[in-house]
Write a structure and sequence with these properties.
homotetramer, Dihydrodipicolinate Reductase, domain 2, 6-stranded parallel beta sheet
């Protein structure tokens, strides 16, 4: 199997995890590591001695022997770096959120397509054992029709100075929802509030509507005393609780539901129909999950997609869908919760 | 101390609890119990032999020796029964939600005022040890400025055929919020969805905005696989988690927060200021709570307010405020989440 | 179906629950309620108007029309009351612990047998949905061979003035163990300590040994800051955690285990064998449990056994087995933890 | 401040953590890393390039410039390696359990004393923020008199081929108990069972008795479906629950207790005294804990003790006390739970 030569630009918070996973993947060779911060670069290079290091990303892009570039820099730079990398003929894996606006995401997606290159967005959560198991269960039809998706991701969080809580946390839940629900929302509303720094929302609620009665709702919060990462996915037959704080029992499938049937009311002379609602409560099932580090699957999916010349699971189009939702959420917040058609 | 003669109309789900508490309160004498359902009436009368029973509420209201009437009937009847009771010169304690529309609530409140009668709404949660302790902490200023109030009240709930999940569950959280926050929201948005029966929302999200950056958000749900009753109350200095599922440790006070300070950036030649955000994490305190049944406090407050000729804690005005919010929430849901000015 | 006439002696802590369940069972008629305390008697008689009341238990026993007697008095009286009831030809259901010593329990068991009467001990926990489900799972062989049974039952408990923590709490866990394990232990050790009142142990550890490597261990404690009621039942193939504090998900079945296999060590010239231990972790299953009140099943089992002339599930012999263990535990504690052969 | 030159022997499971902490401590210089396994050695040396590496521990001991040696090898080698290191004039930090028998531990302790060298045992848990906070609370007298210490450390654990569950897990809890209780037990009983491999206990219960009514009890288990690490420390005034699984709120202090007072029974003509037991339940306090890695404190304590020529907190004597308890536990298990006087 051919070995892909990979360069990583950005050694901040997430970069070292990407570097480690590509370094440990047998079908890749980590050829370059790049960061403008010399200390970071040195720390990383000490741990992964095989890589060339540079503080100039152009040097990485210019290396003609390189197959692929991984971009883990602040979001404001994603567009420019990805564009240059694609134009230099490199496959690209870029951190989430993909870009700062959908126009850029569209342009990059088209560019990759035109050049026949793989463009993948690192929506890491999609590759966790928990989310993949949920997808499998939903796909199997076991839940019945999806009724709602309710996600809470709150903690006393790291304040970002460049992005608000929506751009920071929502890519996780929106990409999970996009993957699991598999349908496109038709409208969005969002509200938020800035309690610490003006212009940077630290709490936000986002709601998506679908063509039918399906709802998706999200609570993002950097200012919560407790850490909660819980998603409810209710189907007409069964329901899932996905609690990412749980060390191993993250996914619980409840054989619970409500059924409504319309019956003729025998006590009613006018022969009206009344609705009878019956409850069903059965076993709970906690499936065993693949505990492989999600980022290992990210690296493998990227390398496989390159090799097999196919779209990766979280391709540019999926990144674009998430950016469109982020953009719409920001617009709705700015307009005081106005409904945004998608 | 004078003994109040009390009649209770309605022996359904909640009525027997009211009956028991008035029967066991020494300053009250339970004189009448009324229900249209003969079986219920018999069950109750067997347990509380002192009461006269009747299936005609007019008989209760007509008893000139009676001081006060407790109304625990379906919400659609609250207005009529309360009005007649007030007009007959009785003090009234009425179940939540107070009425089906704010116009009725206003009329009843004015009527009680004009007649010099006590009109109280049974917002039971306001009288729990947990909520009173939270109120005490918030009043003391320990939390600093309130930033947000986030409440989740979900379970696989009893479907009501006459009211939706908002009218069923929201009176609890809205009355708690009204009591603890002590300020009036200026606008509201709400959305919901009907998954079981058309026209009866079984899931709803309600959001309140205040004049400043304070937010209140509520998730109500009859179709959740898990039972959650959790409220986050974040202040600028401390934060509270109120978990009503916990058997005893319902209130936790977190000495946690974030402080932003603006400092001159010494590395910046243009002498710009940057925001430094610092985190604070200290002890957690779980205060002991009064474990008296809340309804006992409700009965006492009603009787004391009559005797002391003063407004009770949850008077008609407080019931009216909650009904206005319920009404606005319904309007917003019906209009697809439109912002309703309050 | 014939209706059994039942009398209940003892209206203290547990008596009213027995009274309520027999009163609500259609195949029984509650004919007598007896207690030396007039207040208790009045309270009970007001709730259950059909019963005759008396403060003299002999009056109950003397009623020739009575089929069965339920004894819910302090343990010191069990022997005498049960004996007189059996001698008067009544079937008897007696509270746990059965008697204060095994000699009495043996005598009563023989007496009942001789007279052809049903003698049943109210080991309520054996009739819970949780314990019956566990029994079903163990019986099915799903767990493999039982390896150990570890039970913790601790809280800030009600101090008893007549019995210690072993006689108070151990009957629960010992009867559960007796029912689920279905084998007899061969030896016992126990230790305890008296921190509050001399001579009354408030903490105790009891351990049972079986003929093979199976162990059972119990921790009983009236002086714990937290309430824990958890039992681990490990089998060679699967394991169960039974957490009685959980509102609904009390039983969890873990598809977990360890397997040892002996393999020839290829790196070892002397061809020694080494043990390879492999771990297995699979799904967790939380079975739905029957939520009928256990005491209802107790009443039904007692009445059915009388009618069908068969031994009830927790017959005198089972009560005797538990008393023997309690007695041995007390002896071991008194002798500083000495091993007692059973 | 002088920089200590340190060599580490053993790069297995725990060694790399020690290496990392000494490497990152400014007052130490990591001079040697040693392991018989070449792969491990290479992995470690790549991460910590400053160290000399060797597969022969004698080379480390022979380095005359070295001040101190850290021994993280299998327990069977501790005695020999520590002895040689001390004889070569090195200060020694040795992994727990200190030695395989108390005779060796005594000899090493005496040797270190004679040579004026620091001998410290790595009882890491003693250095955690949780245990140090508990010690502080107990020392302050806030708990009152200690009544019992109950510890459960169970999970589906790594089977060791050379030692049983007692030698593997008990050093943690025994060293914590030794540190917090600060008194010496007078007797011990222990029982265990071998379910996987003959001769290697995978479950064990150990109990310590003190001169008064104080008890300490321990449950160690490699074959539990759930991971529990919980210690109850009950005092006559307050009680602590230390739950090491909790990510941050590991220590909870309960203002709970029971008080017994003897009062003259006024209703009793013979003027007997009766015991009145009263319960007290107050707030719960969850103190903030130092979250520094415990091993960093271990490294610092070792280096400080060398520099200040004083005994470290967990000196050879403390290691010896733990080994004596392990030895006694093994003896008691081997003799079927016999009481061992200490």
């Amino acid at each position: 199997m051919s070995i892909m030569k990979v360069g990583v630009i950005g050694c901040g918070y997430w970069g070292p995890n990407l570097i480690r996973n590509f370094a440990e993947t047998e079908t890749a060779r980590l050829a370059w590591v790049c960061d403008v911060d010399g200390n970071r670069l040195e720390t990383v290079s000490r741990r992964f001695p095989v890589a060339n290091t540079t503080s100039d990303y152009r040097q990485v892009i210019a290396d003609r022997s390189l197959d692929a570039i991984v971009i883990a820099t602040p979001v404001a730079t994603h567009y420019e770096f990805t564009k240059q990398a694609l134009e230099a003929g490199k496959h690209v894996l870029v951190e989430k959120p993909f870009t700062t606006c959908s126009r850029q995401a569209e342009e990059l997606t088209r560019l990759a397509e035109r050049r026949g290159l793989i463009l993948m967005v690192d929506h890491t959560f999609v590759y966790t054992g928990a989310v993949r198991k949920i997808k499998e269960i939903v796909e199997s039809g076991e839940l019945g029709d999806l009724l709602y998706f309710d996600s809470v991701r709150i903690n006393l969080g790291l304040f970002q100075s460049d992005i608000n809580v929506v751009w920071d946390l929502a890519p996780h839940d929106l990409s999970i929802m996009d993957y699991i629900v598999g349908r496109r929302p038709v409208a969005l509303t969002a509200t938020g509030s800035c309690h610490i720094e003006e212009g940077i929302e630290n709490i936000a609620y986002v709601q998506l509507r679908f063509a039918d009665s399906m709802l998706a709702h999200f609570h993002f919060n950097w200012l919560s005393p407790v850490k909660i990462r819980r998603t409810l996915i209710a189907g007409s037959r069964k329901m899932i609780v996905y609690d990412d704080i749980e060390p191993t029992e993250k996914v619980r499938v409840y054989d619970k539901g409500v059924t409504a049937s319309r019956e003729r009311d025998s006590t009613d002379k006018e022969a009206k129909y009344q609705t009878l609602v019956s409850y069903r409560t059965g076993d709970v099932w906690v499936p065993k999950l693949d505990s492989t580090e999600a980022l290992r699957h990210v690296a493998t999916e990227f390398l496989d997609a390159i090799r097999e010349k196919r779209q990766p699971l979280t391709d540019g189009a999926s990144g674009l869908r998430v950016v469109r939702l982020l953009e719409a959420a920001q617009k709705s917040i700015d307009r005081g919760g106005q409904l945004i058609e998608l």
